[in-house]
Every structure is written in structure tokens, then in C-alpha cells.
From TrEMBL:
PANTHER family: ENDONUCLEASE 4 (PTHR33146). InterPro entries: PLipase_C/P1_nuclease_dom_sf, S1/P1nuclease. GO terms for molecular function: endonuclease activity; hydrolase activity, acting on ester bonds; metal ion binding; nucleic acid binding. GO terms for biological process: DNA catabolic process. SUPFAM superfamilies: Phospholipase C/P1 nuclease (SSF48537). Gene3D superfamilies: P1 Nuclease. Residues 1-22 form the signal peptide. CDD domains: S1-P1_nuclease. It comes from Cognatilysobacter bugurensis. Keywords: Disulfide bond, Endonuclease, Glycoprotein, Hydrolase, Metal-binding, Nuclease, Signal. This is Endonuclease.
Length: 279
């Protein structure tokens, strides 16, 4: 297992336990890396200044920080957990802010609030640094269809799946993997298996997806639109399979959409940062 894929398997069962995680480390790192390649020189310099001192001072390097709060700062994670997703109206993809994002506690409200903090040069450096780290993660989250879902199953966490796959989990999770079959759920399929099953290392995968999406002059829209767009794919792309037993055929069929969402998220994140960090 290469140096990038090794930690991803460790997130699979964590993602299976809560709707507060989306895209594995691989997906989030790809969004961060592809976005950084699209930054203006001015934005790139400010990102470098804000992230100075981080263990890996890049957008990819901080892309999983919001999830890592679960272990590094449980109280902060408990407070921010609702910021990772939005549950849209049952049976529709309408966003009703008063009901679904009360007090800004959803991924849409979080993106809007953290963008405002980042764009305010009067804010303390630490606040803007954390806002940047949150934004990298949450823009990735909102582009994962299971994180802007309208079904009542905790973002696919309650939709159990038996997946035949050669991708083996880490040792602690092997009790869920036997004879080439992984007991998991639909959230984890979208979180991890769709991208990891491409079989590329990180650099090769980033290069494969590096073409900006969509063309730079296309307006990126607002976070609420990104969420309803994700939700729309749930039915339009038949994300929920009829069978609970899956294999590579489902992964191969749905991977292009997952990769499209990574590319779209990266482009929109880059545009948001270029606008927020312009002077």
C-alpha cells in the first residue's frame, strides 16, 4: 500500500458510524491539491502565510483537519459536527434555511460563515487560518452527494452494503471483511471505495483530474446551490442501488460522478479562495 492510501482505509469504519464524515482522506486531499493548482499568485501567497507552521502547509495537507478534531479536540468536533452536512427536505432537494440550517449549523451555513472570516483581514491570523482549514474541508463535503441528501438514512449510513472488493481494510476492521467481501454502508462506498478503487497513487490521481472544472469563466454559484446539486444526483444518477450486494460494477459506474464532484469542488474552492484573498 502506498504512502497516501495507507491512512485512508483507517477512515472507512469511522465514516460508517456517523454522517459527519465525507470523502476519505484521498477525496479531501484531491480537492485541496487541485484547488491549490488553480490559485492566483496572490491567493497562493496568502494561503502559504496563513498555513505557515502547519505540519503540511498546503490545502491538501490541512484538508482533513476538520475531521481530525474528533480525536484532537472532541469538544470542538462535537460543536462543529453539524457543519459537515445538510439534511434537505424529505422527498425533495429544496433547501429551507430556517428548518435545515438553524443558526447556520449545516454545511451551507458553515461555508458562508467561514468564508466571511477568511475574507476579513481584520480577523486574528488564527481565526483566518482555521477558517481556511474549515473551508477546504467543507467545500469538499458539500460536493459529496451523501452529505446533501434528502433521504432519511443518515446520509446512507443506515443503508447497509455487502461489497465484494480486493481493497482490504486495516487490521482493526478486518472483522468486517471476509472472503473478499466487506460489510459496510452506502456512505462509506461514496466516502472511500469509489475513489480508492481507481488504484492510483495520490500524485497520479491528482494529475488525472487536474483539468479545471468547469471552465474558469463559469459562475460558481452559492453553497446552497452546490448542496441542492449534490442532492439532485442522488435520484438522477440512481446512487441508491436496488441490491445491497455490490461489486466493481457499481464502483466503475459511479466513479466518474465522484471524480466530477471532486473536480467541481476543487474549482469552486479555488474560485472562492481567489475572491476571498484578493487585495
Amino acid at each position: 500500500m502506498n504512502r497516501y492510501l495507507a491512512p485512508f482505509a483507517a477512515l472507512v469504519l469511522v465514516a460508517a458510524s456517523t454522517p459527519a464524515l465525507a470523502w476519505s482522506a484521498l477525496g479531501h486531499r484531491l480537492v485541496g491539491e487541485l484547488a491549490e493548482r488553480q490559485l492566483s499568485p496572490e491567493a497562493k501567497a496568502e494561503v502559504a502565510r496563513l498555513l505557515a507552521g502547519e505540519k503540511e502547509p498546503t490545502l491538501a495537507g490541512v484538508s482533513t483537519w476538520a475531521d481530525e478534531l474528533r480525536s484532537s479536540s472532541p469538544e470542538a468536533f462535537k460543536r462543529t459536527a453539524p457543519w459537515h452536512y445538510v439534511k434537505l427536505s424529505e422527498g425533495t432537494c429544496r433547501f429551507e434555511r430556517a428548518r435545515e440550517c438553524k443558526d447556520g449549523d449545516c454545511v451551507i451555513g458553515a461555508i458562508e460563515a467561514q468564508r466571511d472570516i477568511l475574507a476579513d483581514a481584520a480577523q486574528p491570523l488564527e481565526a483566518r487560518r482555521d477558517a481556511l482549514k474549515f473551508l477546504v474541508h467543507f467545500v469538499g463535503d458539500v460536493h459529496q452527494p451523501m452529505h446533501a441528501n434528502h433521504r432519511d438514512d443518515k446520509g446512507g449510513n443506515d443503508y447497509q452494503i455487502s461489497l465484494r472488493t480486493p481493497l482490504q481494510p486495516e487490521e482493526y476492521a478486518r472483522k468486517h471483511y471476509a472472503d473478499g467481501v466487506m460489510g459496510t454502508n452506502l456512505h462509506s462506498i461514496w466516502d472511500y471505495y469509489l475513489l480508492a478503487s481507481r488504484g492510483l497513487d495520490f500524485d497520479a490521481y491528482a494529475d488525472r483530474l487536474a483539468t479545471p472544472w468547469p471552465p474558469k469563466k463559469t459562475p460558481i454559484g452559492a453553497p446552497a446551490a452546490w448542496a441542492t446539486e449534490s442532492c439532485g444526483y442522488v435520484e438522477a444518477q440512481k446512487i441508491y442501488p436496488k441490491s445491497h450486494k455490490l461489486d466493481h460494477r457499481y464502483l466503475d459506474a459511479k466513479r466518474p460522478l465522484a471524480e466530477q464532484r471532486v473536480r467541481q469542488g476543487a474549482h469552486r474552492l479555488a474560485t472562492l479562495l481567489n475572491e476571498s484573498l484578493a487585495r
